[in-house]
Amino acid sequence: MRIIELFCVAFLCLCPMAWASSSREPCRSPSKTSGKLCVSTTKDDTIAWGDFKYDSTQKYLRFVEDTSKSNKTSHLDVIIHFDEGVMYKLDSKNDTCKKQSLPCHKHPMEVPADGTHVDELYLGSDDKSEQGLRVRMWSGNMTDHDSHHSQAGHYTMMTTSCGCITVSCTYHSEKNDLIFSFFNVETEIDDLQAFHLPDYCEGLELDEASDDHSFFDLFHD
């Protein structure tokens, strides 16, 4: 009987912990992050590789592709203002710029506010220090509630348990199957001018995109 009583006490103690984990609110990413971003398909084909800088307070992103790593002749250089729903595609060689609407504001740099906590576990091993990384897994849909999208994307994201830095994100939709991997991430940005628009981007007319246009479409073949 004593064993049964102890089991019941332990069960009652563990239940709130399990509930707290399953109902965990999405963590908040650092105010500024920068590093390397690799975008690949589920077939292990690298679509893009380059430097990213993200300001989670202003919701600004700069991504500059390194074509020598992705074996592409094209060069992707974008500045995105997510809250404003605007994306700028830059061509510094020709001093040209394209301003395009971005109705869907979600992206893999931080966990969406409606993300669902799935689990907390270790990448690698937790037996010894510096042999593993404790991460949290999140999932959800990448469809904005204020947009009428015909196609919804689903994501599974991993962030560091401490600091809420995105480690990876797998994104699936009818148009894309993408894997985002983040490397050498730092919680600072060495050049805040990276978010400033060059003179040749000023005064452009907005090119209206479809209602389901998102950051993920940058990597759509």
Automatic annotation (TrEMBL):
GO biological process: cell-matrix adhesion
Origin superkingdom: Eukaryota
UniProt-recorded Gene Ontology molecular function terms: calcium ion binding
Pfam name, any one: Ependymin
Keyword Transit peptide belongs to the record: no
Keyword Repeat: no
GO cellular component annotations of the record: extracellular region; lysosome
Cleavable signal peptide: 1-20
UniProtKB keywords: Signal
Family: Belongs to the ependymin family.
PANTHER family: EPENDYMIN-RELATED, MAMMALIAN EPENDYMIN-RELATED PROTEIN 1
The name this protein goes by in its record: Ependymin
Highest classification ranks of the organism: Eukaryota, Metazoa, Chordata, Craniata, Vertebrata
